[in-house]
Amino acid sequence: MHNREHHRGYSFDWITIVLFLLLVGFGWLNIMSASHEGEIGSYFDMSQLYGKHAVFMGLTFVLIILILSVEAKFYERFASVIYVVAMLALVGLFIFGKDVNGARSWYGIGSMTIQPSEFAKFATALAVAKYMSDLQTDMNTIKDQLKAVGIIILPAILILLQNDAGSTIVYASFFFVFYREGLQQIYLAIAISAIVLAVLALKFGILITALVAALIILGIYFFRRKKRASIIQYVVILLVCASFSAGVRMFYDHVLKPHQQNRISLWLRLEKDPVKLERMKKEEAYNLIQSEQAISSGGLTGKGFLQGTRTTGKFVPEQHTDYIFSTVGEEWGFLGSTFVVILFMALIIRVLFLAEDQKSQFSRVYGYGVASILFIHFTINTGMVMGLIPTVGIPLPFFSYGGSGLWGFTILLFIFVKLDSNKINEW
Amino acid sequence: MRKILLLLTVIIVGLIFISRLFYLQVYNKETYSLYDDTAIRKEFDYPKRGYVYDRNGKLLVANQPSYDVMIIPREVEPLDTLEFCKLLKITKEDFIKKYNRAKNYSPRLPSPFVPQLSKKDYAVLQEKMRKFDGFYIQKRSLRDYQTSIGANVLGDLGEVNRRIIEKQPYYVLGDLIGKQGIELSYEDVLRGKKGIKFIQKDRFNKNIGPYKNGTYDTLPQPGKDIKITIDSELQKYGELLMTNKRGGIVAIDPSNGEILALVTGPSYNPNLLVGRERNKNFSRLYLDTISRPTWDRGLQAQYPPGSPFKVINALIALQEGVMEPSEKVTCRGGYYYGSRKLTGCHHHKSPVDMNAGIAQSCNAYFVTAYRKTIDKYQDAGEGMNIWADHAKSFGLGDFLGYDLPVGQKGRIPDGNYYDRAYGDNRWGSTYIVSNAIGQGEVEATPIQLANMVAAIGNRGYYYTPHIIKEIEGDTIPNKFTTKRQTTIDKRHFEPVVQGMFDVYNKGTAASLRIPGIEICGKTGTAENFIKIDSVKTQLTDHSIFVAFAPKDNPKIAIAVFVENGYWGSRFAGRMASLMIEKYINKDITRTDLENWILTHSLENEYAKPYSGEPFKINGESTLQIVDKVQEPKDDNLDNSININVNKPKL
Q1: What is the pTM of this model?
Q2: Does the UniProt entry include the keyword Transport (chain B) (predicted)?
Q3: How far is A224 from chain B (nearest CA, A)?
């Protein structure tokens, strides 16, 4: 990438673009498998979902050309404006939005629907990049940390209020960005401890969690004998840990909705009563079981394109959207699904490398945001479909059916492609 | 660290995902089969089951259509249960019970709801079936017996159970499989192969068309017809003669080992085990532990053979060179060891040579021959082993290897047997003289005895008895066409055969001669005991008879065994004689003999042990005389119970 030609037209990172095209193209084939009704006639049959998606793809290319032809500086300059517009779009949902499956996340325009939360992601990434690249921002100060968090908390809360808990989690991915840009090490330690404590508290109860925490803290206390701090400090940490576990427990018991409780309970295998467990599986894990079976039945090489019996029989609900990866598993087998996993890894890692290579902090932070958002989507979606992560409804980038999703991710990625191509002009 | 945290996380997550995919798709994958794919519905098309003909081409077993109402519980929609129950002639409680049973088996797999509807019920139901989601009608074919005889040979079909399904995935719940007789032995030949249609379902279980346009669908392959070796006329006659008696008749063609008749008494009409009443009727038959109609006495009854076994001892003595045919033995009304009488004997001329020994069935003669055989060897164990090898070469003491699913090994004791019983070498030939006259430890089944006389009639070889004569488009297993040699040289048979001939000519069966047929036979009488209130009690002796005819190039070898029939020629001998005449001459000239059999019953003899009162046996008891038994008509095939099932009158 260092010896790319200086001519602008040739400075786009073709590796990223090829990876993008592969994902979108392969995604479309799988949408065709998962969604076709009856015989496949024309590829652009608008009565079929894959036909519609083909149109979305066509529009995507128009969008890409637009994004790439805009001056790179535009994105930095107008980052705040874009962010504000996106937030207004989210707020507007409360008034003009349309309910679909209990979530108020769509605008209806004629027969079309648009999901603004898909566009809020790149807007937030731009805003974060803008704020953090500001010379006056110092991520070592609590005040600026809170401001940065505020930028991502706002869309997260708006989306949560629209009953789309899945998309909210995506904003947690900005932790990677903050950390890269100098957030203190202690936050990483706190984050990891919090996750461990939460899982322990749910799985084994508050008492055992507190006990384990006490033992570890005691260990650290004796280990670090030389610069021993006051014992009170350790007691405080222990108390914080204990009350955090209690809080997690309370949150699980009283704040989460029953279906959310069940998903977590199934994931951590909390339920011991076989009757309740069976009922829970029927209510909550139907998709999951179907999806796992579909993937498993694919074997090493899969049943072949359009040949998946479970896909054809539409056994996996929502297979063309959130569960699209199960189609890959059934029809393309271990080889095909591993290929997709590797494509995603390659794309994310490519974006990461390019981000590290940026001269301007804005571009680097934005690139990091892109990689983080793609990563969290990929991890949560694929992990869920293969039964590693509790059910969270978010799409697989570039793969899942849907115009808003495809466009949102395309804009997210191609703004970075544009920024990257402009790096030779930076100084 | 700051720069590589995300990179590291991406790589770790990717590796975890690939391992998970490997676990799901490669490591933990069950071998994929269309049959197990729950997304594919399987519909079966059952082929015609092979017909069964007798040796003369008479059709014995055909098919009739049958309709099962099947259920797939999770597809059942709310329905008018009242109407449905009325159509099926079941109560609402039945409906709930059957529904729950099917659901417990599997909510998504079909199981029979009401099996085997009558044609009339089917016609009514068919019209309305589409109103009842989750139920459908599966057509099958049931057996249609063209005869009322041979239930023990023909066997029957029953529904497969789960154990069979686990072992043989070909079968699914509701399928029929051979349970007894040739239906079981030749299941693979008769059943053919069912056709299958694969239909793609969606997740609401609706059919959305043939899977891959029917590429994998198969057509049913019809079962093959078979011809069995039974002569249905002879079989029918044997069953007639056996009426009011318990026992078995086995007739074999010595020239090829074909079983001409295999009669067990009491028997039952095979049509009892067809259709919806099968389970009820089968339980009734099976649980009748007194007359045991489902127990094939021709194959499974295992008794001391009595005197017919003596001829084997004669042959062994000749082969071992310890006796000459002309050598005479003195009989003083029994066999004496010193002054001790080891076995008694009835009154006859003395001394006897081999011919007279067989004809008069002299116990002393055979004990002498037997002891000489054993004592030829220094060690009684060795002598006994050699003796046992000779006896076993006649197919005694082990399964014969015929093609019917039930049987008994019988018993020919050898040296080890007595070493275990008495201690090593702590016994001698005088301990075990009962074997000489077919009592003691020797046991055999009627079919083993019939095979034994077939080997004698053939002068030294036999073919494994079998029931299969022809398989459509196939050959019968070659173990049935392979000659099996006994260990006795051919030349030793003539004096023995002559002795058996003289049994008829001037011996114990002189009254049973058939004009124009030279029969060789041997009577037998076997003592037997049961326990009544844990007291060993003797019952009337079993009547046994073995014979072959004609004397040279025999066409039939027969063993008849009648429980508690007393002496050999009384029942068994008469019946054997009639059977031979029926087979060779096709007509019965000695109607007085036939009348005697058909008017004499042993039912009151069988009732004695269950009467709870003291009773007399053998010569002291009187025979029961009944009205002449009528031949059952073949066209009388109604399914009511009580055909040929003889219950003791208690």
Answers
A1: 0.64
A2: no
A3: 23
